[in-house]
Amino acid sequence: MLKIGKYTISGGILAPMAGYTDIAFRTLCKECGAGLTVTEMVSVRGLVHDSQKTNALMRLSEIERPSCIQLFGNDPRDFAVAVKTLDCDVIDVNMGCPMPKIVKNGDGSALLNDPLRAGEIVSAIKSATDKPVTVKTRLGYRMGKNQAEALIESVAKAGAAAVTVHGRYAEQRYAGTSDSDAIIRIAKRSSIPIVMNGDLCDCSEPKPPIAAYMIGRRALANPHVFDGEGFNPFVVARRHIELLLQYFDDRYTIIQARKFFVHYFRGVTGGKALRTAVNYAETVSQVIKALDECEKLN
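The chain above was modelled as a monomer; its predicted structure follows.
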């Protein structure tokens, strides 16, 4: 069990993943047992400037309770302004994204090099809202340079309720293996709950000192990783399409089907032909027809 402010989270947490964890997929994962879902990361600069694209990322479904929006940026003043506009239960701050376009602006994992500023960001948020604040980070920026503990100490003093640690360094991006032992050592010394992220395959109840598991790429292949029920890719794909059409237009639905079917149908008989058909599909009905044809082979 993970306590975040007044909220008790039971079950695995869906990691925020740009381009994937939109409102449709988050809803699907909640239906499949996720205890908490987190939006794609949202720019505080975009919020301050009332970006329409930014606002679209923050749509939440009724099933997402408690709800969590993840923000990124590096200016505490921007965070203080931005959080006043949020209609969610929990605010998460990305201090771990390793992508160059994020890091070059001083955002994401760049904050591992500046734990003082990391704490100032959390403090600014706490001064502007009573919503609980969490942080997501990595072991460090450069290989072997363990900076997570200094950042965690700083944000804990500023009032963060919990920190998720991905067991890689920013330099690694997603290569190599996540170091779960390093996360456990960090958790033993932390004054606030630590959530483990990276290369996790199930959502079984974690043993102390880890408070919860956060699942990312594994959920893309099987949203039922959260409840442990049998995975039927055809059932999941049809429900996913239904949810996409509920929130988005046909074009976006087809694009997302192309992304997710690579994961859903890996190793499935006829899966390659299905993915090829969807890549050439121009209508949702063509996607569904391809699904039907593949299912007949299984």
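The mean pLDDT is 96.
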